[in-house]
Amino acid sequence: MFNPIQYISQGDTPQEQLYHIESVLDGGQRWIQFRFKDTLTSIRWKTAEQVKILCDTYQATLIINDHVDLARAIDADGVHLGLQDTAIATARLALPNKIIGGTANTLLDVQQRIAASCDYIGLGPFRYTSTKKNLSPLLGFEGYKKLIEALTAEERKTPIVAIGGITLEDVAQLEQLGVSGIAISSLLHQGQHPQPIIQQLNTYFL
Fold first, then answer.
1. What CATH code is carried by the domain that includes residue 183?
2. Which of 58, 81, 86, 126 lies at a CB distance of 3.0 to 4.6 Å from 164, suitable for a disulfide?
3. What predicted TM-score, i.e. pTM, was given to this entire model?
4. CA torsion through residues 77, 80, 85, 91, sign
């Protein structure tokens, strides 16, 4: 089930990953995208198994970033694929009846993702973010406005999620531009506890 507020995990170690994920789950977050790139496969898999237990405990949706095989092995709720990752059609064969999201940066990317029957599209980056390397060109408010306006009514039925350096002050305007949700990471770790921010975010996209 689509959730308009999506958390992308961060942390350089399993301990950091699990601490951050448990803290946002405890704060009320119910969509977790597990993203743990710069580590050994064995460590990523073991950590993902622990994240699955946490998400099951909190009845949260678990999406695995990039790794279709891992999503299938732990019976995650779905996978999110970058532009250079596994093709949507291939992932759909491996993960029938699961959520499959895809990254996009341009109008052509978005239309290709829609044609491939993505369940949602992570469109960005909105602005610079240090949580991801090798960023695509920044979109800003104007970029989202132009892109969404260029879509047909039918194309707009696929949810578009804004991502990349989003702050609380950005959310209302992004919602007005027509995005269906936001993906965040560092925003939920700015205070001592993420619950107040999560509660505020959940007042949008109703």
1. 3.20.20.70
2. 126
3. 0.95
4. positive
